[in-house]
């Protein structure tokens, strides 16, 4: 059994914790407009806070490295080079920020606003299906009543993106290369035409609250147990620790136990 910890934050109420970010992250944050900046800072501060416990480091000292396998650029799947068995993934959309972590070969999480489904539906209806749905999925999509289509599409999309984030491919691989069970069925990978052999992966739908869909993918064939956390208290504790300084500041509580 693989235990995956999933931490949820509300970017609109999270305390500002930009001081926990490294220089590269701070430079990226500075280039973003609010509210993208708020989501970015909340997500990266939260990742550092929850990774502090399993790495034994202060959140600001956690070394997060992203290196694109295609172009070598400093983007793509973030990793912990000093802790290769500890996998994590970040996602944000609207007000929701989520960080997932587990002792696994790879973890991917994706949250999307329901509003994003309109953009996806327009792409599918315009015939841009090659980029979104596999042929069997398109047939299932077209058989759905109009009122269920947006929800179903978003369910497919978040499951696909979670898998592509777990493998590290991201959207460099067409989501249509990932064929899944129907949105109303238990989530499972049913076909793969991406690079290399099909990954062994466990998929779990997450409840991100009204107006959102979210999914989690964990590489491997072990069953997955998901433990969800409200990140509000750890974010507020980290902000309080920064205000009172290192003498009285404690490391924020448990990330992955
Ligand atoms: C990042 C991506 C997977 C999802 O984006 P999204 O739905 O807009 O955003 P989310 O909030 O769900 O996820 C973003 C996070 O995914 C992570 N991520 C980025 N690339 C990733 C990858 N290849 N695999 C796994 N995770 C990735 C990052 O932590 C990123 O957050 P950050 O930018 O704050 O560090 C997608 O936009 C993508 O793959 N883009 C790059 C495409 C590419 O590889 N092009 C070729 C470049 S040479």
Describe it.
The protein is α+β, with helices and mostly antiparallel strands and about 260 residues long. It has a domain at about 1-105 and about 220-255: Ribosomal Protein L22, Chain A, CATH 3.90.470. Helices cover about 30% and strands about 25% of the residues. It has six helices and eleven strands. The protein has helices at about 25-30, 35-55, 115-125, 135-140, 145-165, 230-245; strands at about 1-10, 65, 80, 85-95, 95-105, 105-115, 180, 190, 200-205, 210-220, 225-230. The strands form four sheets. A four-stranded mixed β-sheet has the order 4-5-1-11. The chain has a three-stranded antiparallel β-sheet with strand order 6-10-9. The longest helix is centred in the middle third of the chain and has 22 residues, at about 145-165. The protein is globular, with a radius of gyration of 18 Å. Residues about 245-255 have low confidence and may be disordered. The structure holds coenzyme A. Coenzyme A binds near residues 71, 78, 89, 110 and 168. The site of coenzyme A (COA) has 20 residues, from α2, β4 and α5.
